[in-house]
Amino acid sequence: MSWRRRLTLALPYLWLAIFFVLPFALVAKISVAQVQVSVPPYTPLFDTQGHLQIDWANYKLLFSDTIYVKAYLGSLRIAALSTVIALLIGYPLAYAVARSPARWRSILLLLLVAPFFTSFLVRIYAWIGLLRPTGIINAAFLSLGLIDEPLKLINTEAAAIFGIVYAYLPFMVLPLYARLDKLDVTLLEAAADLGATPWRAFWSITVPWSLPGIAAGCLLVFIPALGEFVIPELLGGPDTLMIGKIMWAEFFSNRDWPLSAAATVLLLGLLVVPIMALQTIAARAEGRAEARA
Amino acid sequence: MSVIAVDGVSKRFGAAVAVENVSLDIGDGEFVALLGPSGCGKTTLLRMIAGLEQPDQGRVRIGGVDMTTAPPYLRPVNMMFQSYALFPHMTVAENVAFGLKHDRIDADAQRARVSEALALLEMTAYADRKPHQLSGGQQQRVALARCLAKRPKALLLDEPLAALDKGLRERTQLELMALRRRLGIAFIVVTHDQDEAMTMATRVAIMDKGRILQSASPQDLYAAPASRAVAAFFGDVNLWDGVVTAQGVDCAALGLTLPVPCGLPAGTNVAVVLRPEQLDFNPDDEIAVGGHVEEVIYRGAVSTVLVRTPTGGLIRIVRPNLGTVPPVGERVTVGWRRAAVLVLP
């Protein structure tokens, strides 16, 4: 192997080492420390005598205090629900784009990513303006006489889920579209010719074909949704418990860096399991379907 | 009774006419080839029989039942696609079984039909492979088995040999012919290759610009083409313009009047058709024309000799390579019998 080739191969690993492994090692180090009033605000890894100081108290607390367990479960539930809803909305959307006439496709895809041209925060704030009790939606319904008092649209878990689905939908649609676009329509014609109704052809041909796209889309929605902080904070209100909010509160309000770091490490652990499961499914389906071409 | 009856069918895509007022009756056990250049509407006609396209006008009956608007999954015919369209995520056996799941057949009978179809095409050993692990020829056998497991009333084949190399193509032609004889169902094949159509089909329908020009056995098409276009498209041919006179047909390219009666009024423009194998270098024949050999195309068993006449016409002659083929530049006299001349309007 030439040195050029080695360098090319080394670059992504170097990138990962600098921007992922090293920061994560720092976070892991902080997670086994204790809070102390100093700069930085935690005990060092080695004390003055040079002894290693590892304290698992932060992790024990995360598992013993129900608020953390609830926050993790809340995050998992909200992320999972958001992913499922995004899939249910995203799949027909991706299918429609993939099946639309070629000259429309690029326009439709552009419309899909158009929201990214404005700031994410601005769009979430816009939803506050739409959903709040004095917001546009409630005002419209009130003036139409459909309701007598404002609906509680904001500061609910449903609003947080809605916001996450809204924000991450393109990440579901794009990989699905990329996959469905490559589906050979002749396969569906063959299925029909062999006696399959369109509905059965969809389930026996289209869905298996799109599994890698489904896996990729679900990962791209589930992972950021699990650690999401801004959307539940702005739309979910104080009752929506997600681990991202807890981490923020521990870090900035309580200045408890070690506990926040421990929560981060645990979250990563929670993410690795579904990622590896879905990667395996995707790799298997992709290998099956694409080795043909 | 005809198994498939296409009656006055037309199909347009936007402004383009794909198929125009086509009628075709296909009997049980017939091997019909739809032959024509690309864009002549042959594939569209096949897809309308399969139900993958809906005709704008006309009726399609299958087994005596009007199925003009029936969806493909209700039609008792099956199609082998040019790309084979095997399901990539299923094994060979699952592909073949796919069509049976939608029929009301119990699991044991399904298994029996799958192994029967695989055995018929000698693919039993590959039952657990995925399509991508097969060669092109093997994929085609699976596609055929998948159709035949359904026991269709007719098998539709869209350019079945286009993706195969020459040796395999000839073997597959013979196999398709044997298969059709054994199963006794109608085969309808779409092809742009006249040799393929001539070899396999019991009847060839020649299509051009959405219409069927003539539908007959290969022998009849070759010996008695109904029009200039058919004569030009089907088989090797000499085709010249001619004008009917009192003495016969005046052919400018040959510089002589052919003493053949044609029953058309004098002055009518006609096409003079002569098959190249009907000609010989024989000055004593009923009709003879002089010229010099311009080109000799060697083709193994036979050679095609191009002879230029003094009036500028070009005559194609096909002779077996038995030592009698003249060299380029030689002055020759080409002769033929009067009965070999076809005069077409």
Short descriptors:
heterodimer, A: 293 residues, mainly alpha, MetI-like fold, 12 helices, 75% helix, B: OB fold (Dihydrolipoamide Acetyltransferase, E2P), five-stranded antiparallel beta sheet, 8 helices, 19 strands
Distance between the termini of chain A: 29 Å
Task: Decide which structural class fits the backbone of chain A.
Answer: mainly alpha
Count of beta strands of chain A: 0
Coarse shape of chain A = globular
- The poorly predicted ranges of chain A are none
Rounded to the nearest angstrom, the distance between the terminal CA atoms of chain B is: 34 Å
Q: What is the CATH topology classification name of chain A?
A: MetI-like fold
Q: Looking at this structure, what is the CATH superfamily of the largest domain in chain B?
A: P-loop containing nucleotide triphosphate hydrolases
The multimeric state of the shown protein is heterodimer
- Tell me about the biggest sheet of chain A? none
Would you write up a description of this structure?
The complex is a heterodimer of chains A (about 290) and B (about 350). Chain A is mainly α and about 290 residues long. In chain A, about 75% of the residues lie in helices and about 0% in strands. In chain A, helix 5 (about 120-130) packs parallel to helix 10 (about 230-235), helix 8 (about 185-195) crosses helix 9 (about 200-225) and helix 11 packs antiparallel against helix 12 (about 255-290). Chain A is globular, with a radius of gyration of 24 Å. The model of chain A has no long low-confidence stretch (mean pLDDT about 90). Chain B has about 350 residues and is α+β, with helices and mostly antiparallel strands. Chain B has two domains: about 1-230, Rossmann fold (3-Layer(aba) Sandwich), CATH 3.40.50.300; about 235-345, Nucleic acid-binding proteins (OB fold (Dihydrolipoamide Acetyltransferase, E2P)), CATH 2.40.50.140. In chain B, the strands form four sheets. Chain B has a six-stranded mixed beta sheet, with helices on both faces. In chain B, strands 13-12-11-14-19 form a five-stranded antiparallel beta sheet. In chain B, a hairpin with a 5-residue loop joins strand 16 (about 300-310) and strand 17 (about 315-320). The model of chain B has no long low-confidence stretch (mean pLDDT about 90). Classes of the chains: A mainly alpha (about 290), B alpha+beta (about 350). The interface between A and B is medium-sized, with 24 and 27 residues.
